[in-house]
Amino acid sequence: MDGQARSQGLGTRTVDPAEQRRATRELVDFDTRTTSHEGFSEVRVVNISPLGLMARTDADMSRGDRLIFELPHVRTVHAIVRWVEHGRIGTEFLRPIGDEDYRLMLAFMPRRQRDW
Prior knowledge:
Elements: H1 3-7, E1 26-36, E2 39-49, E3 52-56, E4 66-71, E5 75-85, E6 88-93, H2 99-106
Antiparallel strand pairs: 1-2, 1-4, 2-3, 3-6, 4-5, 5-6
């Protein structure tokens, strides 16, 4: 592969989604609920950043679903489901949570010590 192709990202290497994260995730253990066009669902938030969160849920959700999460301090956050896998969802907030609001929100969320 030539330098131009490499600089334009035209190589054959695939990038792990974890490498594409734009913000550090905080490990949390927080039960809450979310609202969608289908009603309310219970979820457990397991990691969060100012840009989105990952949660566990038994609810039937699909990529592209729009959700409203109830979170401490910031109250409601609108998000879109970016991926669904084995009872977990990854979401992106439609508007990032500001630094000060994020810090205050985390103060109300129990932390987890290990990823799984």
